[in-house]
């Protein structure tokens, strides 16, 4: 299967053509394309970085829920101060100011003042897909199969846009279920573009190799040819998306050291259960008996082609 993303969208009759954009490869901050906030405005929005405003924390920094001066609710990401943090900050702002799609998190603005760097993004209320797959959030409820498909299609649309919606493809490099956010309507939006990279004009004929980028991402989601050889193409994202598709079906993390050795790696266990014909016993117990066989078979075909 040459185009798993297109196959998923076509399978559900949802493939749309995205308008192509001309992306600028320059690292300068895009003053004219989004709002530049002062540090005073950021402090006011987050109640001076009150601990109760924190909604997330990771390697790049802390995310606060804030209210801007016009009443807009926003996610305010306070980047950690370092050389790499500065590069990733500029990268995310530069790309997001030029990308607009219903299935990508939208950039509102940014702030740079002294050693402080902030990215201000639209607030996505329900949290991440991971929260609902793995029972992380306080509002956890098992997702129906129809809703899971709806979320996967949204993610596929966003990823398809990144790969085909501009003259230069955008490789996300950090596709995983915790970077897929869900709004009130369960619309899936891809987030976290600090590590994203512009590809060459024709991704099918070129590679970005190890000597032009450092290998980054989350182990278990990275394509083998990327983390072993440093070869990065849009297929690297497709592989990561395939891992998420299996997480959606199994309702578990792709790597779980608490499980028996033959089950700790989701992809290894999937291959084993497919080979032995036990896939129906291995999927998320909540989904058993709730997926039409022909739908499950097509879903497995698409997911398998992503990680092939």
Automatic annotation (TrEMBL):
Cite the GO molecular-function annotations of the record. ATP binding; protein serine/threonine kinase activity
PROSITE patterns to which the protein is assigned, alphabetical: PROTEIN_KINASE_DOM
What protein does this entry describe? non-specific serine/threonine protein kinase
Does the keyword section mention Magnesium? no
Q: What is the lineage of its organism?
A: Eukaryota, Viridiplantae, Streptophyta, Embryophyta, Tracheophyta
Q: Which PANTHER family match?
A: CYSTEINE-RICH RECEPTOR-LIKE PROTEIN KINASE 3
Which residues belong to any copy of the Protein kinase domain? 49-308
Protein keywords: ATP-binding, Kinase, Nucleotide-binding, Serine/threonine-protein kinase, Transferase
Q: Under which EC number(s) is this enzyme classified?
A: 2.7.11.1
Concerning InterPro entries, the annotation shows:
CR_Ser/Thr_kinase, Kinase-like_dom_sf, Prot_kinase_dom, Ser-Thr/Tyr_kinase_cat_dom
Q: Does the keyword Ribosomal protein apply?
A: no
Organism in which the protein naturally occurs: Gossypium armourianum
Could you name the domain of life of the organism this protein comes from? Eukaryota
């Amino acid at each position: 299967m040459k185009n798993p993303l297109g196959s998923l969208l076509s399978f559900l009759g949802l493939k749309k053509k995205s308008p192509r954009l001309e992306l600028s490869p320059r690292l300068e901050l895009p003053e004219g394309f989004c709002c530049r906030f002062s540090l005073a405005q950021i402090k006011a929005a987050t109640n001076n970085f009150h601990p109760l405003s924190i909604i997330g924390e990771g390697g790049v920094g802390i995310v606060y829920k804030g209210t801007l001066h016009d009443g807009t609710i926003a996610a305010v990401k306070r980047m950690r101060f370092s050389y790499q943090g500065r590069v990733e900050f500029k990268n995310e702002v530069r790309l997001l100011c030029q990308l607009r799609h219903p299935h990508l998190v939208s950039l509102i603005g940014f702030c740079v003042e002294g050693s402080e760097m902030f990215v201000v993004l639209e607030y996505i209320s329900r949290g991440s897909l991971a929260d609902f797959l793995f029972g992380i959030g306080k509002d956890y409820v098992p997702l129906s199969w129809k809703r899971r498909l709806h979320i996967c299609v949204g993610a596929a649309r966003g990823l398809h846009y990144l790969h085909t919606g501009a003259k230069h493809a955008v490789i996300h490099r950090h596709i995983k279920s915790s970077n897929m956010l869900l709004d009130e309507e369960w619309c899936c939006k891809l987030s976290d573009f600090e590590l994203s990279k512009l590809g060459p004009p024709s991704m099918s004929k070129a590679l970005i190799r190890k000597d032009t980028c450092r290998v980054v991402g989350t182990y278990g989601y990275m394509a083998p040819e990327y983390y072993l050889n440093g070869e990065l193409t849009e297929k690297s994202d497709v592989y990561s998306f395939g891992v998420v598709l299996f997480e959606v079906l199994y309702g578990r993390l792709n790597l779980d050291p608490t499980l028996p050795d033959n089950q700790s790696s989701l992809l290894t266990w999937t291959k084993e259960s497919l080979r032995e014909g036990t896939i129906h016993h291995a999927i998320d117990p909540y989904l058993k008996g709730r997926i039409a066989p022909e739908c499950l078979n097509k879903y497995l075909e698409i997911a398998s082609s992503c990680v092939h």
